[in-house]
Specification:
Layout (H helix, E strand, L loop, with lengths): L1 H9 L2 E7 L8 E7 L9 H13 L3 E5 L9 H8 L7 E5 L2 H5 L4 H10 L2 E3 L3 E7 L2 E7 L10 H4 L8 E5 L21 E4 L26 E3 L5 E4 L17 E8 L1
Parallel strand pairs: 1-12, 2-3, 3-4, 4-5, 7-8, 8-9, 9-11
Antiparallel strand pairs: 2-12, 6-7, 10-11
């Protein structure tokens, strides 16, 4: 009970992955993913998270949906983002709870823009770090939005790396289908599942609709590879067990 109500909720693990030729000794691009904040207050855990992000100094921070789940919590998102170095470039997508919570998407987009963050709804942006191009494609939420991968690729330009963001991992199965364009995807990042949120010694009793067969971590038995974040916050029941919150760092070689 102590673990579920206190320890796992308070501690955020950092998982690091070196992609391709990247190693601890190479000069790398740092892409950091956080997901499913479900902000209800700015507490000690979240201020520590912001400090950790500032220490990591990511070249790009990506938020894979469900930052807030109520319209009146938009101010909390602004407060949290203001704790993060403004110069860190950021990209975000929508999750099902931004829709279910009836968040004003115009106001949300304005807020993100004010914090050096781009809200991607079926869009692709290209970034340049160390003379390497990184394309980020963000698709709309699978459950409550209108995801359209082909539309998202309209502004795609050939890049050294291409990462796709989708909130619900189930939608990633659609990204294995032909798009009509010669587009390479290095990997997909998703959230939504909370890693099961409550697991019993490896058994996951429940994952939300839109999870498919995916729960957490890497899925390399498919192409493109998929990484599912356990996220930060909780939904419905304010506890975690066997599914510690995570911040994930992906290192891309230059």
């Amino acid at each position: 009970m102590a673990d579920a109500f206190l320890i796992e909720k308070l501690l955020i693990e950092t998982n690091k992955f070196y992609i391709g030729k990247a190693t601890r000794k190479t000069k790398n691009i740092r892409i950091v993913q956080i997901s499913d904040l479900h902000l209800r207050s700015i507490n000690y855990r979240l201020t520590r998270l912001a400090k950790k992000l500032n220490k990591l100094k990511p070249h790009l921070l990506v938020l894979t949906g469900d930052a807030i789940d109520k319209a009146n919590n938009i101010g909390l998102l602004q407060e949290f983002l203001q704790l993060i170095d403004f110069n860190v470039q950021k990209a975000s997508i929508l999750g099902n709870w931004e829709y279910q919570g009836k968040v004003d998407l115009t106001a949300l987009n304005k807020l993100y823009n004010s914090q050096n963050c781009k809200l991607l709804i079926n869009q692709t942006l290209q970034y340049t770090f160390y003379n390497k191009s990184v394309a980020i494609t963000g698709v709309d939420d699978y459950l409550c939005g209108r995801p359209d991968f082909n539309a998202a690729l309209e502004n795609y330009r050939e890049s050294d790396y291409h990462i796709v963001l989708t909130h619900c991992p189930r939608y990633s199965d659609h990204l294995s289908m032909p798009t009509g364009k010669d587009v390479n995807i290095d990997f997909i990042l998703a959230g939504h599942t909370h890693g099961g949120q409550i697991t019993l010694f490896g058994y996951v009793p429940y994952t939300p609709r839109g999870s498919g067969r995916y729960v957490k971590g890497w899925y390399k038995d498919r192409h493109p590879h998929l990484y599912v974040s356990k996220g930060i916050g909780t939904v419905s029941i304010p506890l975690r067990f066997g599914a510690r919150p995570e911040l994930t760092v992906f290192y891309l070689s230059t």
